[in-house]
Amino acid sequence: MLLDNLRAMAVFVAVVRHGSFSGAAKELNITTSAVSQQIRSLENELGAVLLQRSTRRVSLTEVGELFYQSALKMVTAAEMGWHQASRLRDDVMGNLTIATTPQVACQYLMPALSDWLAQNESLSLHFMVRGEEFDMTHDRVDICVGFVDAKEVSEHDKNDVLLTYVPQLLLASGDYLDRHAPIHSIDDLAEQDFILLDGNRTITFATGETVDIKRKSRLSTNSSKIALKLAMSHQGIIKVNALDAKPFIQSDELKNVLAGHELPPLALVARLPDKEFQPTKVQRCLDILVKHFANLE
User: Fold this and answer.
1) Which of 144, 162, 123 is CA-nearest to residue 271?
2) Alphabetically, which GO biological process terms does the record hold (predicted)?
3) What pLDDT sits at residue 150?
4) Residue 263 near residue 239, CB atoms below 8 Å
5) What was the pLDDT predicted at 152?
6) Does domain 168-264 sit in CATH 3.30.70.2740?
């Protein structure tokens, strides 16, 4: 009933604006009889006559004049709301929230998006650190950038956009390697000290070979940043993605362990909330990120 009344109010405002039923019908792309029916329904609902009809023109009654002021405010507010929602959908403006890790945000996303952000002053970018429990809809996250098993990536999943494949590496400091037994084969890893990232005690190689860490790990974390710092302080070996480790390898603070034995890569994915339409700002951001990571390869 409320929706019907709101529709009838919009028709009523159009009739007053044009001074005729036919003018309103032309603007709204409906028939003159449909306009007449809407006005009649509105008057019946209010129990009052809103318009005086004549053969040439319609005019407002006293009640109609009073009602018109409120109806006009309603229609104007609705049109403004529609316009603002359309702008937010179609323009690069408003808030854009990206959930990711601190390392990915600082080393890759911000450099990739800085020029685009400078060109769009009506856009605000918010980086949110990913938590263990995460709800994109509830937390109003537009894009979630993170690592997943490469096997989980599907070309048919419209909510996941592949940015790049990232190698996984086994790393340790030179001091740790000098002070411990030499590592010549996969089997030699079993007795080494490991810094566990996300509690995984099994290492699987690209060949399918696996090794279980036998020694009890005294250090563990769910943060690759902390794991890297621990490795640089000579506490053990870590398995970490190459993006996070890149600056420490380049500075020679960490060295590859068993470089000739590859680990399965991870996929860096931009995940979108499950909804039918994505705003233009999200699509533009994704285009820039895909191009940026393609240029890094």
Assistant:
1) 144
2) DNA-templated transcription
3) 83
4) yes
5) 77
6) no
Tell me the C-alpha to C-alpha distance, in Å, between residue 107 and each of 134, 243, 292, 297.
23, 8, 12, 15
Give 3-state DSSP helix, strand, coil % of the chain, rounded to 5: 45, 20, 30
Q: What is the pLDDT of residue 49?
A: 92
Structure tokens at 116: 């685009």
Instruction: Give the Cα separation of 297 and 69 in Å (integer).
Output: 62
pLDDT of residue 31: 93
Render 141-199 in DSSP notation, one character per residue. -SEEEEEEEGGG--TT-TTEEEEEEE-EEEEE-HHHHHHS----SGGGGGGS-BEEETT
Residues of the chain with CATH 3.40.190.10: 94-166+267-296, 168-264
Six-digit token string for 237:
């070996």
Kindly provide the b/e burial profile for residues 119-148, where b requires at least 16 CB atoms within 10 angstroms of the residue's own CB. ebeebebebeebeeeeebeeeebbbbbbbe
Q: Which helix (H) or strand (E) holds 290?
A: helix 280-296
Partnered with residue 98 across adjacent β-strands are: 127, 143
**Other CB atoms within 10 Å distance of the CB of residue 103:** 20
Topology of domain 94-166+267-296, CATH? D-Maltodextrin-Binding Protein; domain 2 (3.40.190)
Q: Express each pLDDT in 226-266 by its tens digit.
A: 999 999 999 999 999 998 898 999 999 999 999 889 999 99
- Two structure tokens written together for 100: 């990711």
Measured CA to CA, the distance from residue 87 to residue 195 in angstroms comes to 49
CA 3, CA 7: separation in Å to the nearest integer? 6
Count the helices and strands in the chain (H runs, E runs). Answer: 10, 14
| Radius of gyration of the chain from its Cα atoms, rounded to whole angstroms | 31
Which residues of the chain carry a pLDDT beneath 50? Answer: none
